[in-house]
Structure formats: structure tokens, C-alpha cells
Sequence to fold (453 residues):
Amino acid sequence: MQKPSIPKGTRDFTPQEMANRNYIFNTIKDVFRLYGFQQIETPAMENLSTLMGKYGEEGDKLLFKILNSGDYMNGLNDEELLGRNSIRLTNKISEKGLRYDLTVPFARFVVQHQNEISFPFKRYQIQPVWRADRPQKGRYREFYQCDVDVVGSDSLLNELELIQIVDDIYRRLKINVVVKINNRKILSGIAEIIGEAEKITDITVAIDKMDKIGLEKVNEEIASKGISQEAIDKLQPILQLSGTNSQKLEQLKLVLADSEVGLKGVAELETIFGLCETMKVETTIELDLTLARGLNYYTGAIFEVKALDVEMGSITGGGRYDNLTGVFGMEGVSGVGISFGADRIYDVLNQLALYPETSVEQTKILFVSFGEKELIYSLPWLNSLRAKGINAEIYPEPAKMKKQMSYADNKKIPFVAIVGETEMNAGKVMLKNMKSGEQSLATLEEVIKIILD
Fold:
């Protein structure tokens, strides 16, 4: 008989792992709400017409497509089947797909519900997304994104708030990070200056791999896209800019002097750096010109957040997009957003052992049960403790003391209430602290006080 298993690139999570994951989700949610963001959800599957063509050619290949229900082969003729053209066949037998990210479904949501929402619209969304990627360390086929976006506002205050949110969340999670920032307008300006404006996508996709493959390989990739050696030579000093953020911006002003769009990007970044300084953002923010973020829809500032103490790709990323809703027929709506990769954050916290010792989901007290009378005596106690917000449970049937104690140990329950004749006659329980081993007779009020302290 075949052993049960799960698809590659997916994971099961045990209760302890879920407690750790919820610690991340709850931390992120708390900060999102602090800044006035509200939660929405969208379906796991979208129409392929919504998803296709929004992520570039690479992204289209990574979409999980869902077969039409019923007899999906019915409308196909022999010629189509024998042609074995998988793209054409897929179009005939599949109309829906699993969402690839939360941004495109969000754009669809904004257009569909534009008359019910008030702008600027500040939303957050925490849901799984799916990508038919090759699974590897830190990369899964099913993973959670925690997205926060503002649409309907051009103000760079929104960029500041997103950086503050990053700063706040990672300080709460105790992860040391650096925020890398760039601007698509600067990248467009560079492409313009070197005389390859049409090749902006090819150039940015290659530049974005700088961290992974190094300068030499990036140059090779750019050359393979038909970009002239002269243009590549002009690109080198830009890729190797150094100094502080303001020194880099000053150098860029000179390089981009003839590019209106490039200078606009520089001015936007100056404003954002200035706002961060005014608000005393503690996290390091670094201008990184090799940051291009592969997605085609960014038009302004782009962000990426890296953890400093572990080897891991980016754990948060995003940027400004001026025309995302345009693809759904709603022009002129600017938005900016970032996405926290919960699964990567989870892996970072695991590697650095940064989870709190006790979780909000943990049972705080277990009532040991020796018989029917003791069980009945314990039930009102459980009610009273739960009414005070204390997670409490009872061992559901009489069993040996050792078995019940090891149950408490396995679940890391800090207190055990032992009930026998003596305790019932006194209207108390014998409260045992599982860590220190100390035990004492206690009333309900005393038990509540000890646990809540």
C-alpha cells in the first residue's frame, strides 16, 4: 500500500508550528491595523483571464491551472489532441487558475468594488498563494503572503508608512533587517541614457540577479538580449555606485542629467529618505541600484527587505505601481504596497530560535481526573477559568497519574490541578507547577491569580 504523502513544495504544520506561525501572523496584523489598514479576502482561484499576462512570460508559466469541471475533453477535436500544443490545449480545457500573488486579485477587487470602497483604500490581506516553481530552500509551491497596500493616493507619505510598518514588525519579531530601496524611474532613466529604453525589462530582469550571479554573469545576460557593448560599458559605473545614500543620489543626478524620468526617480527617493530621517526610522535603509524586482508592474519606489543574520532571499518586497488597475479598465489609480513572506520569516525565526517560550494558544492548566466525582467537581472550575480567558482542559477519562502527567509534559502545560477526596472536601485543588515541581492547595481565586501572574 502506498504511503500517504503531500505534493512537493508543500508542508504540514504541527500544533506547535501553527502556534509559531500564528505568532507571526498576529504580530503582522497588529501592526497593519495600527496604521489604519483593513482586511479583505479573495478566492483561492481566479479566472485565468484575470491572471494571465500580468506577471510576464516567466510568471505565466508558473501559474497552476485548474481543469474545467465535467467532461473537459468534450470540445476538443482529434487534430488539437494530436497537435500536443500544451498552451493551446490548456486554453480549451482550463478557465481558472490558483492565484500567483495577492496584488493582481486585489487590483481586480478594487475595480469590481470601486463603488463600495472609499479612496484612498488601505487594505491588508493574509492568504496562501501558489507557484509551480522548483521547490528549494526558502521557496515553496504553496506559501502565505501578508500584503498591505494603499490605492488611490500618489503621496510619498504612503511609502514612508510602509517603511515604518517594516521597521515596527521586524523590531517586534527581533529580526535584524536592512531595507533596500530603488526606483523604477531611475532604472528607466538609466536604460534611456545608455540608449536602450525599449530593453528596460530585459535590463532590469538581469540586474535583479546581481546578488545571485555577480556582475560578470549579469553583463553576459544583458549582452545575450542584443544590447550593444557600448551600452553595457556605460552601465558599469552605475552598477558599481558606492558611498552613502545621499552620495549615490548626487552621483545619479550627474549621470541622469539628460533624463527627465530618471531625475524624477531621484527626487522621489530624496523625499522618502528625508521623511524616514524626520520620523527617525531605526532600520537601515540602503539605496541599491541593482534592485529591480522582476515584476513588470512597478513604476516608482521599489523595496526589498533582507534579514542580516541568516542566509535567505528577501523576506519582504514591494513597490509603487501607477497602472495596475488599468489592465482591468480603471485608469489613473496609483497604488503602493509591500508583501511579507510569512514562510521565509517563519524559517528565519526557526533558525534564530526567536519564538516566545509560551504561545497564546498553549493550554495553561490541565485538570487530572481520577473518577466520575472528581470530573464533575472539576467542570465548573474549568468554566470559571475559561471565562477569565485562561486556556484550560481536563483529561477526559480516568487514567494513571503518570500517563496524565506525561500528557501535560508533552503539551508543555505549565500547571496541573490534582483533585481527590481531600481537595473536594476543602473546596480547593492541589496546584502543581510543572516547571518547579512545587505544589500547594489553592482556591479558584488563587489559581486564577497564580496563572495570570
The mean pLDDT is 90. The chain has two domains: 15-39+100-352, 365-452. The CA atoms of residues 208 and 292 lie 5 Å apart. Residues 15-34 form the longest helix (20 residues).
